[in-house]
Amino acid sequence: MSVITGAQIRAARALVRWTAEELANAASVGLSTIRRAEAEDGPPTITPANLKLIRIALESAGVEFIPDHGDGAGIRLKK
């Protein structure tokens, strides 16, 4: 599992039309944790456990994280 970026989290949340509070609830983390994670364009400065919870919540909502293979990291909705 590759590390996701704050930019990917922001974009994923927008794609599923969740507020930061809705993501925090879905991931069982604090709203301040979501805000800190999204403040970075690169890897967030939050605990790996919280990052995993955020990723799982967004993936459960239908988001697929695309790792950076030289063309930049991204997101998309699962088929």
Kindly describe this structure.
The chain is mainly alpha-helical and 79 residues long. The chain has a single domain (6-71), classed as Orthogonal Bundle (434 Repressor (Amino-terminal Domain)). 51% of the residues lie in helices and 10% in strands. The protein has 4 helices and 2 strands, in the order ααααββ. The protein has a two-stranded antiparallel ribbon with strand order 1-2. Strand 1 and strand 2 form a beta hairpin. The longest helix has 13 residues, at 48-60. It is globular, with a radius of gyration of 11 Å.
Features:
single chain, 79 residues, mainly alpha, 434 Repressor (Amino-terminal Domain), two-stranded antiparallel ribbon, 2 strands, globular
| Subunit organisation of the chains | single chain
Order of helices and strands: HHHHEE
- Gross geometry: globular
Strand content: 5-15%
Evaluate the radius of gyration.
11 Å
Kindly report the average pLDDT value.
93
Helix proportion: 40-55%
Structural class determined from secondary elements: mainly alpha
* Domains, number: 1
Task: For the record, give the distance between the C-alpha atoms at the N and C termini, rounded to a whole number.
Answer: 19 Å
Task: Determine the CATH superfamily.
Answer: lambda repressor-like DNA-binding domains
Please list the strands of the largest sheet in the order they lie side by side.
Answer: 1-2
Largest sheet: 2 strands, antiparallel
**Low-confidence segments:** none
Name of the CATH class: Mainly Alpha
Q: So how many helices? A: 4
